[in-house]
Specification:
Layout lengths: L7 E15 L11 H5 L9 E2 L12 H8 L3 H8 L16 E5 L5 E5 L7 E13 L2 E16 H11 L20 E5 L5 E4 L5 H11 L6 H7 L3 E2 L9 E4 L7 E7 L7 H9 L19 H5 E2 L15 E4 L3 E7 L3 H4 L5 H6 L1 H28 L6 H24 L9 H14 L1 H51 L11 H24 L1 H12 L5 H13 L6
Length: 550
């Protein structure tokens, strides 16, 4: 069996996905078009809107067609729209996805450990995906490198996509599980930004002040002019992190000898572990007993690599999607209809949809927590804001459920089953039910509050009506012409009218003020089991009792 040093990766391609929550640009606006702010050119804004590849029929290729027909019609409308033109921006005529791209970063130079030779990755794409009516963005970074040792490839995939360090190594001071250094390079190899994982004080002080983590300097640069929510910098759009500091990723490995991949190697690839001894398992045998059933897609794979096509294996754990195959297989390497082409397009979109759904559900949860934290029952303004926020969240979630929630995206077996594996590992159905139940609970709370206020109003009006009955009878009695005032002058009759009207109006207002206590008195008066002493005390509490909540 080949040792880990003998294994080489002819071509490695990694795609990082980083979902972030976009903060509202206008608190009172129902829809937030964050992407429009990045679409405006400027000296500090490297982003530009990416034209739709499906827009020009003359450039529509077979690869585009194969990608399109992979998905079911509802997913096709989500990804590609219905071709009605960009002027239709507020209805489902065109795709609700907007893609922004920056082209100033050409390479990533990564040093895994101090003293190691840097690895120069070519940057294929740096894209930001925005979604209509959903306040999240997904950063998609695609990089690749040729001819790299297998263990180096494993460590690169393990360390590269780290937004911030989890800890610091005692001896070296390096950020835990992070590369020693990451540098973004321009086309002329100029260093644009450098990581700062080793700056402990920066990360410690930020969490100490804001109770939220900050990001490494090179990721801050990559996202600019978007800025972190708590950062002191000014930016067009502010964002907040939604998930774990390790970014979900996809990886494609073309190996010089795919048959040398051991079970231990597959486990590390699927679970996103760093390199290790290919002959020993990273976890216990009991824990890994059903590994192949849970994490491997082996529809065409056969152990031993007797056939080239049978060496292609998919590893899916939700946060990772890794495919391995033999570099001598032309179909595996093909960028026009082969496995590499499908990995970069169909599989990428499948992975994107799953993590978009997860990020959107986390966004709804974050929004509800924020709404509840601002709720103050005695404060009418806070109550109005809470009702508005929950009503907007209900509307948002309804549109999300009908427009973006897909449990099945394709009838093609490979895409269908890989998507199902990814969703199952991400626990999307459980998360969806949890968010829906939380929204229903909040909706029920609003209904109960509305009913409580309505009942209080009815009670107060009933009390006012009851006590107003005395005045009604009295004025009605006066109106029976017992006194002949028709011969009196007009001014005298007007004075008599106001002499009755003003005290009656004041008495009515006073009755409204005391309606809650008067209601308690009427309850005591109507209860035959209550003694006259308690009834008298209930009457006295109308004027001398303590005020309760309104």
């Amino acid at each position: 069996m080949a040792t880990i040093q003998d294994k080489r990766v002819t071509h490695l391609r990694q795609i990082l996905l980083w979902p972030v929550y976009l903060l509202p640009l206008d608190e009172d606006a129902q829809l937030q078009d964050h992407w429009e702010h990045l679409a405006k050119p400027g000296p500090d804004n490297p982003w530009f809107e990416l034209d739709d590849e499906f827009g020009d029929p003359g450039e529509f290729q077979a690869r585009h067609y194969n990608e399109f027909v992979t998905f079911l019609p509802p997913v096709q409308r989500f990804l590609y729209g219905q071709g009605l033109g960009r002027s239709v921006s507020k209805v489902y005529g065109e795709s609700p996805i907007r893609v922004m791209r920056r082209a100033d970063i050409a390479k990533a130079r990564v040093t895994l450990d101090r003293g190691d030779e840097p690895i120069t990755l070519t940057v294929a794409h740096v894209d930001l995906y925005f979604f209509f009516d959903i306040d999240i963005a997904l950063l998609a970074l695609e990089v690749y490198v040729d001819d790299i040792a297998f263990d180096t490839a494993q460590n690169l995939m393990f360390r590269f996509g780290r937004a911030y360090p989890a800890y610091w190594e005692a001896e070296s001071g390096r950020g835990g599980h992070c590369p020693w250094k990451v540098e973004w390079l321009s086309l002329d190899d100029k260093v644009l930004a450098t990581s700062d994982y080793e700056c402990r004080e920066k990360f410690l002080s930020f969490v100490g002040r804001h109770r939220a983590p900050t990001t490494a300097a090179h990721w801050e640069f990559l996202m600019s002019p978007l800025v972190l929510h708590h950062a002191d910098k000014k930016g067009l759009v502010r964002y907040r992190q939604l998930e774990y500091y390790r970014m979900p990723y996809m990886a494609y490995l073309a190996l010089d000898r795919a048959e040398t991949i051991s079970r231990s190697d597959s486990i590390r690839l699927a679970l996103g572990n760093e390199a290790g001894d290919g002959t020993s398992l990273p976890y216990s045998e009991a824990y890994l007993a059903d590994f192949e059933q849970r994490f491997c897609y082996d529809r065409n794979f056969s152990s031993g690599g007797a056939q080239k096509a049978a060496s292609v294996r998919f590893h899916a754990s939700g946060d990772t999607l890794v495919v391995t195959g033999d570099a001598s297989d032309a179909f595996y390497l093909s960028q026009e209809g082969g496995v590499l082409c499908r990995f970069r397009h169909q599989h990428f979109l499948m992975f994107l949809i799953a993590h978009f759904q997860k990020a959107a559900l986390h966004m709804f949860s974050d929004r509800m927590v924020a709404a509840v934290s601002r709720l103050e029952i005695p404060n009418p303004k806070a109550n109005r804001i809470f009702r508005r926020d929950i009503r907007n969240a209900h509307e948002n979630f309804l549109r999300f459920a009908h427009r973006y929630w897909f449990q099945n995206i394709s009838h093609q077996a490979q895409v269908h089953e890989l998507f199902d594996m990814t969703r199952r590992h991400l626990q999307l159905d459980e998360l969806y039910r949890e968010i829906r139940e939380e929204l229903q609970d909040m909706g029920s709370f609003l209904d109960v509050e509305a009913m409580r206020k309505q009942n209080e109003t009815v009670v107060r009006l009933t009390v006012v009506t009851t006590f107003g009955l005395v005045g009604t009878v009295t004025t009605g009695f006066i109106g029976m012409n017992l006194f002949d005032w028709t011969q009196e002058p007009t001014w005298w009759r007007l004075a008599a009218f106001f002499a009755v009207f003003v005290p009656t109006a004041l008495l009515t207002l006073y009755t409204v003020v005391k309606s809650r206590r008067l209601s308690d008195f009427l309850d005591s008066l109507s209860d035959e089991s209550v003694s006259w002493g308690r009834r008298w005390r209930a009457l006295m509490r109308v004027w001398f009792g303590k005020s309760g909540p309104g």
